[in-house]
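This week, think about what follows.
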Amino acid sequence: MVDVGVFCSVGEGISATHFIRAFNRYLFENCTNQDDEHSAKLFLSFQDGHTEKWVEAQPNDVKNSWKALKPAFLARFQLDETSVESPQEWDKWLRCLLELSMDVLSEMVTQWGLAHAAWMSLSSELQTAIPQPKKGVIEFINTCKSVPWSTYECILDEHDQREEVIKEIRHRKQHDMEIHWELKNKLQCDLATSIEEQVHKALDSLHFQMMPVSLPMQQGQLSPPQMHQLPAPPVHQPLTPPCNIAQFTEITQQTFLDTPQGKMNYEAALCDFKIHHPHATIQPPKDEPYPLTPGTLPARSNECHHCGQDDHRQVTCIDGAVLQPEQNYC
């Protein structure tokens, strides 16, 4: 449905041409079965103020017939459109907003949606002065018109001043950035020139040092070349270990036979090991009486401690003995 609104005068709202177009669409959508006289009475209900008095002052054959009232209305109020002298930009925006909202059908967008979109298009300063609409565009436009024009001027002046300040800040930042790049380029150029001068001075000094001190006494006779003694190679002195470095002693593991006498010899060697090496951190296992000679299983197992096989014991072994791997305790 089209929101036609109320037509007061040309200076307050939409143009007469646009109002007639919106009213015709309203008749087409809602009053298709009404006759010409009823349409004229319905048109009068949408008038207010000066326009309402003008319609009531018309002859009966004009005000009771929509076909006659329509051209008379346009002939009267279209002329008033040119008599309005330089309306404010804000009034122009409200008139344009109302005309655009009347061109959009409610089946596409609701009137509240149009009013909300119009309110969102305002600046934050105007949104604080104008509350958010709850109904439609007509209510929003009437609310905007109810705000005094002095309030708009104050808000717009503050907005313009703020925009000028922001523009000035951006201009100063741009100017500072240009000065920064100019100084940076100048410093780089001066640095390159200074390095080039230092290189030329170093080359001139080196060239002066390579020149002979004096010319030879006789022409064609050159002074004997000077002998330069090469520096002697550095002598590598043997490094002496610090006196506090811990000394490590290699202790070889002894091997004993799997016999009663070998057991006695093992316990005697173990006692002697504890006496001579009281600070040893690794010792032979105490839960196994003999070192493993060549296998890895403990004593009294099925592994032969003579040749390393698993199918017989050492007392019945006829194979050659396998040497035990060397193990150090320090």
